[in-house]
Write a structure and sequence with these properties.
The complex is a heterodimer of chains A (about 110) and B (about 110).
Chain A: E1 5-7, E2 10-14, E3 19-24, E4 31-37, E5 44-49, E6 55-58, E7 61-65, E8 71-76, E9 85-92, E10 99-100, E11 104-109
Chain B: E1 4-7, E2 10-13, E3 19-25, E4 31-37, E5 43-51, E6 54-57, E7 64-66, E8 76-78, E9 87-94, E10 102-103, E11 107-111
Parallel strand pairs in B: 2-11
Antiparallel strand pairs in B: 1-3, 3-8, 4-5, 4-9, 5-6, 7-8, 9-10, 9-11
Classes of the chains: A mainly beta (about 110), B mainly beta (about 110).
Chain lengths: ~110, ~110
């Protein structure tokens, strides 16, 4: 089946640093979504992207829909301890179904 | 408050028993989904339903069954045929035609 590759798999950063993570695929996607999951909870939708090249922000988070339509990027500026969690990308290229990446685990040192 | 509820939060069962996980939403969403999440991994689709009384298999439907008798409810039964049932189960819903899925808090199932 289709796969979304997220990198890095994990990050351990100092509070205040900026964070970048990405999601790539061998297939073209029409929609990219970014979710955050905290331990023992369900994922929460952060940002949805619908057009190639689109850049969308949500507070300190900024995500981009890659122009090749095969990748997406998420940046977090000035990280804080509550940014800790697993960040998942998800893509759609047919029907209502989403394909999820394996996640990037973010740890923030105060 | 609109949202998705899953119950219970934790569930323990003996091997060989069927178990049903509850998922209810009051978002008036037409589509509902069940995912399975294993430690350190992404989400895999078990079943989905886009309309009452209709549902489709996802990528890993074997050993699971669902029903969709009401728009707001989409229970998942983990049967004894599921070889590795211990996992974190997530329910989600969306408006029909929307890619934005909203998740419940999950049920952690442990089978021993």
């Amino acid at each position: 089946g289709q796969q979304l590759n997220q990198s890095p798999q994990s990050m351990f950063i100092q509070e205040g640093e900026d964070v970048s993570m990405n999601c790539t695929s061998s297939s073209i996607f029409n929609t990219w979504l970014w979710y955050k999951q905290e331990p023992g909870e369900g994922p929460v939708l952060l940002i949805a992207l619908y057009k190639a090249g689109e850049l969308t922000s949500n507070g300190r988070l900024t995500a981009q829909f890659g122009i090749t339509r095969k990748d997406s990027f998420l940046n977090i500026s000035a990280s804080i301890p509550s940014d800790v969690g697993i960040y998942f990308c998800a893509g759609n290229n047919a029907g209502n179904m989403l394909t999820f990446g394996g996640g990037t685990r973010l740890m923030v040192k105060p | 408050d609109g949202g998705i509820t899953q119950s219970p939060k934790y569930l323990f069962r003996k091997e060989g028993q069927n178990v049903t996980l509850s998922c209810e939403q009051n978002l008036n969403h037409d589509a509902m989904y069940w995912y399975r999440q294993d430690p350190g991994q992404g989400l895999r689709l078990i079943y989905y339903s886009q309309i009452v009384n209709d549902f489709q298999k996802g990528d890993i439907a074997e050993g699971y069954s669902v029903s969709r008798e009401k728009k707001e409810s989409f229970p998942l039964t983990v049967t004894s045929a599921q070889k590795n049932p211990t996992a974190f189960y997530l329910c989600a819903s969306s408006n029909l035609g929307s890619y934005e899925q909203y998740f419940g808090p999950g049920t952690r199932l442990t089978v021993t």
